[in-house]
Write the structure tokens for this entry.
Amino acid sequence: MLDTDLMTYLAKLSKLEIDEADKERLVSEMSAIVDLMDTMNEVTFDECENLKGEGVNLLNLREDISRESFDREKILKNASHKKDGFFVVPKIME
């Protein structure tokens, strides 16, 4: 699944420099994270009687309040690259 070639590719996409010595360690750590996520996907809460009624209570959340935002021109005045009221950033995805 994960190997040093994939780690090199991901580092290039992320514009990160990773030492060759660290790649094996990162592959091991990332594999453990992916394995954990796979395990979590297998968990079902339908069968867990202990969890009924627990979790986020949607009635106790704060109310969304609309308010004025920052002045767009003031924020963009120091931007080196801007267009049509937005920041222009380099493309990072292939």
